[in-house]
Amino acid sequence: MLEKKEERKLTLELITQYENYLLEQERSSATILKYIHGLKEAMVFFEGNELVKQDIIRWKKQLAERYSVSSVNGALAALNGCFNFCGWEELKVRPLKRQREIFCPEDKELTQKEYVRLVHTAQKQGNLRLSLVIQTICSTGIRVSELKYITAESVATGRAIVFSKGKQRKVFLPKRLCILLKMYLKQQQRTKGPVFVTKNDRPLNRSNIWREMKALCDTADVSPEKVFPHNLCHLFARIYYTLEKDLSRLADLLGHTSVDTTRIYTAESGAVHARQMERMGLVVT
User: Fold this and answer.
1) Model-wide pTM > 0.70
2) For the chain, percent helix, then strand, then coil, each to nearest 5?
3) 3-state class (DSSP) for residue 282
4) Cα–Cα distance, 89 to 244 (Å, whole number)
5) 63-95, pLDDT tens digit by residue?
6) Where are the alpha helices (DSSP H) in 128-282?
């Protein structure tokens, strides 16, 4: 914790100290990157002036006019976290309130048929690695950042130990997936370490996978708005919940601390809800 100073300014030096603190707290690299980006944008806005609550509220309002609620709250979380680190709690501002969405937007929801088309398109284009990456994420519910824990050793046992956000959990690999991954490993002549790597033998990252998935959209006839790695996790969650109706168990499988987060993953589209209402047959005249 930094000692309180009379001058409260957001500087590059302070941001670097806070970044080191986040690293020591073992926050994920994606979270740290997002927080530091938000703080640097705030630093530009405040122009080296001493921080006062009124200016911070003005910054919050300006963000609200330009970005989504989730983006604004992410930026505020970064700034409030930095204020906690500095002992400047009185400068913290409240996040924007947002009503929880009951339905998943239809233009954002990846369907199972679309998922299958993506897998088949990757195969037809000769991109076996991408086909297996998509199937691995969707059949296990892991985050793309956790893909590095799918190793030759875990494929052999059918179990992967995943470390994320300071927690450890066991992820089960479906038998059919293990068969496919073993064949792929044999083809790649890999006997240990991460299954999916780049040409330089480094684990694939989010940008590698995102870019390759987007390239499938036209041929697979899937909207690019639906095609990103995290949507595969949402599809896993919706299908699992449809079969099991066990939100608490699903939260454990996904590594969520709160079932409220899991509810977001299981939200169905309004069209699905409308069909369910029609099947109820409660309009009788």
Assistant:
1) no
2) 60, 5, 30
3) coil
4) 43
5) 999 888 888 999 999 999 999 999 999 999 999
6) 128-140, 152-157, 175-188, 206-214, 217-220, 229-244, 247-254, 259-266, 270-280
